[in-house]
Amino acid sequence: MIIVFIMFKLLTRSASVAALLLMGGCALLSSRCPLEETECLRRTYSRAPQYWPRPVIDEGVRWRELAPISTPQAADSPKVRLGKMLFHETRLSADNSIACRHCHLPAYGFAEPKKVSSGVGGRLGRRNSISLLHLSEPQHFFFWDGRARTLEQQVLMPISDPVEMDLSLSKVVPRLAESGYAPYFQTAFGRDIDLQGVADALAAYLRTLRPQPTRFDRFLLGEADALNDSELRGLHLFRTKARCLNCHSGPMMTDGLMHNLNQALPGRPAQDLGQYAHSGRLEDWGKFKTPSLRNLSRSKPWFHHGLFVNLRGIVAIYNNGMQFGIPANAPPEAYENRLDPLIKPLGLSPSERQDLTAFLEVL
Ligand code: HEC
Ligand code: HEC
Where does heme c 2 bind (predicted)? Predict the structure, then answer.
């Protein structure tokens, strides 16, 4: 009996040692296999993200791993339903013609397929409409130039903006009262219509929006063949040599922070000094908010000025390290280099640029 027990112990111990050896061997194999080989990349990226290759992240950068999109919580409360009604309400504009939805179209990732937006009376704004699909994540800057600091503060600003809805905020409550909104505010907040309720309802609705899951989400959820070879190599480049994860990280692929990418275009017709224009601090010169890259193909054209219409071109300017000439008539401040130090020339080969573009197209 004792002999049998000892033999059993020995056997199970050697079995677990063998299992351990086997696991270690596999880990060694997969970390040793050459990542330039697509088959090896696929094997490595088929594992959970904690086993993925270490990304290229500069010192001091706070980042999160890429992750699948979550489903909305409490998507159907009376507050959210009211927010959705308000989002579609043209009476929130001076001439009853424009609702939020006018420039944030669901089919275009809640952005708009135009270079810059037009509001009441066809008045043109200065910037490209930004996608609203990332607002479920807590963040500290709103608008391309970060001039609003909470979503509740932000959502009232388009209403009174003269080139958007152009309605004085003092008129909002009477307009909604005339339109029969009182019962909806009672159900949502247990009180009469007020501006705080308008802001809270709109913000609550926007926080329920989510990007459409794509093949990339299926890949992240374990379907190893959901990305083709080129897209897979693009994912690896995005996290490593191309340095994109330094700013476009987490499930929504944004750090929600402000960066200068030399897009202020000083001295040119589209000059826009970004955060500096409202803060007046030189360190904010040309800074814009990192947009989410989820459902990117829907929110074309891109960047705050809407001047970029193809993703290959965007990859090319990142590859060049965002170097642009400065015209002679630019303000003197423009000559000092304030490019974000996270932006560097990348040295991507033509086929690597193609792979990175293919990855961006699947987001
Ligand atoms: C006339 C077009 C237009 C209308 C109408 C409009 N927006 Fe916008 N929206 C834009 C543009 C353009 C931007 C980017 C502007 C900027 O950054 O200066 C923007 C930015 C935003 C942002 C910032 C998102 C972020 O990540 O920082 C939110 C939120 C938003 N709009 C919500 C709304 C809501 C809510 C309404 C209705 C009350 C509305 N918008 C009406 C064009 C419009
Ligand atoms: C230093 C931070 C930073 C890094 C690194 C970075 N980005 Fe960006 N990205 C931004 C900011 C900020 C913007 C918006 C700039 C603007 O509009 O002026 C942006 C805009 C974009 C856009 C346009 C999205 C839209 O909705 O308009 C794309 C596409 C993009 N980046 C892809 C990439 C890729 C690919 C890489 C890696 C090669 C990368 N980014 C690296 C910060 C960064």
Answer: 244, 247-248
Q: What's the confidence (pLDDT) of residue 75?
A: 73
| Domain 38-69+213-361 matches domain 78-206 at the CATH topology level | yes
Please indicate if the annotation marks 100 as binding a ligand. yes
What's the pLDDT tens digit per position in 187-222? Answer: 999 999 999 999 999 999 999 999 999 999 999 999
Asked whether the beta carbons of 119 and 98 are under 8 A apart, the reply is yes
Give CATH for domain 38-69+213-361. Answer: 1.10.760.10
Distance 106 CA to ligand 1 centre (A): 13
Confidence of residue 17 (pLDDT cuts 50, 70, 90): very low
DSSP conformation class of 132: -
* Site to substitute for ligand 2 among 58, 244, 295, 308, most atoms within 8 A of C-beta: 244
Domain ranges of the chain: 38-69+213-361, 78-206
pTM of the predicted structure, to 2 decimals: 0.91
Q: Which atom of ligand 2 is nearest to the CA of 131?
A: 26
pLDDT in tens, 121-171: 999 999 999 999 999 999 999 999 999 999 999 999 999 999 999 999 999
98 lines ligand 1 (CB under 6 A): yes
Query: For 260, phi and psi rounded to 5 degrees?
Result: -100, 115
Question: Residue 164: which residues within 8 A CB-CB, separation 6 or more?
Answer: 93, 98, 103, 117, 119, 120, 125, 158
Q: Which ligand 2 atom sits nearest the alpha carbon of residue 274?
A: 18
